[in-house]
Amino acid sequence: MPIAVDIVTQEKVVFSEPNADMVIIPAVEGTMGVLPHHAPVLTTLGFGELVIRKGRAEERFAIYGGVVDVRPDKVVVLADLAESSFDIDEAAMEAARASAEKVMREGVPPEENREAQLTLRRAELALKLSRKVRTGGASVLRIVEEEGS
Fold this sequence. Notes:
This protein is of the alpha+beta class and 149 residues long. It has two domains: 3-85, Sandwich (ATP Synthase, domain 1), CATH 2.60.15.10; 90-133, no CATH class. Helix content is 28%, strand content 42%. The chain has helices at residues 90-106, 110-134, and strands at residues 3-8, 13-20, 22-27, 30-34, 41-54, 57-71, 74-79, 82-84. Strands 1, 2, 3, 4, 5, 6, 7 and 8 form an eight-stranded mixed sheet that branches. The longest helix has 25 residues, at 110-134. The radius of gyration is 16 Å and the shape is globular.
């Protein structure tokens, strides 16, 4: 029996897969692997990499906080922000990282410094994930079609 996975933000449904084999979740308490028939869990997400496996294929996402509802037959990720590794714009993330580092070096009011720190964390995570996928640091096959298509 497979497990359904939905990744949702306030703006849109980022990803939906009705027949995943496994989900690896970046929970605040640590990385959590979820297989079909998992015990129900509701937990907070941290910044990290979420991986969905289906057969030999993987889809990877940069997740920036939120919550996840794990049920025996479904995982619902309600992310503050989520990006597929295939949609990350490395040039934009490099620019955001450089800008955030500059703001933090120059010293700004605490509220702007916090925003710069979050931007920096987001950019570094996105760049790490994008480079991992691009350089083949992991065996990645994008789920494009349903099996048998």
